[in-house]
Amino acid sequence: MTSIEYMDWKQINDSLNEKGYSIIPKVLSPDECRHLSGLYDDDYLYRSIINMQRYRFGKGEYKYFNYPLPPTIQTIREMLYAPLSHLANEWMAKLGINTTFPSIHRQLIEQCNINHQMRPTPLILRYEAGGFNTLHQDLYGDVYFPFQVVFVLSQEGKDHCGGEFVMTEQIPRAQSKADVVHPNQGDALIFTTNFRPVKGGRGYYRAKMKHGISEVTDGIRYSLGIIFHDAA
Predict the structure, then answer these.
(1) Confidence tier at 29 by pLDDT (50, 70, 90)
(2) What's the pLDDT at 74?
(3) DSSP assignment of the chain, as one string?
């Protein structure tokens, strides 16, 4: 795994500020991607299995890990949280939101527990041909961190076709703007959970954003989702 401390956090923060998302290439090796996608069949690791079609979330399946998380996933969650917490607090200040995020992930989980959010949220998602995920946000409770990360575990054009990552941003007094993002296997895509601050004529306002997955037309697509807050 690429060392998180050596990532270009200025570029990452600039992209998050400007677009609401940032791609970090080649964080995981192909072997690490295969190892993580191989965990999908180990049902004892998971607290819940969700059939998207049943809940009208789309078509596909995802599984939420149980505690204790696999060591690699626990490490990723803790190490990515620390640098992102600084930008999260900058966003809250810009928007005049009276929320401060601790710099240590364990302390965020303690805040979640106080608010009865005790279920872990990291997950692995699997889509076969015809699978997709509707536009949504992963909030899960009153306490939520403004960023989350997805690691692409399979390669578009080789393991599957389609399945692009889609983000929409609500434009004031207009329709939503859509971005289609193409991360490769092993890339990390950091993106906003709910909104991003945008400078307007009267200061900053919240631009609401959602994300989803376009239809997979062939093959199987795997991804690992890292959500930093826990669920109620």
Answers:
(1) very high
(2) 96
(3) ---GGGS-HHHHHHHHHHHSEEEETTSS-HHHHHHHHHGGG-GGGEEEEEEHHHHTSEESEEEEEPSSPPHHHHHHHHHHHHHHHHHHHHHHHHHT------SSHHHHHHHHHHTT--B---EEEEE-TT-EEEEE----SS---SEEEEEE-S-BTTTEEE--EEEEEEPTTSPEEEEEE-PPTT-EEEEESSEEEEEETTEEEEEEEEEEEPPEEEE-EEEEEEESSPB-
- Is residue 61 domain-resident? yes
**Which residue range is the domain that position 71 belongs to?**
4-227
Backbone angles phi and psi of 92, in degrees to 5 = -60, -40
Residue 232 lies in a domain: no
pTM of the model: 0.95
129: domain CATH number is 2.60.120.620
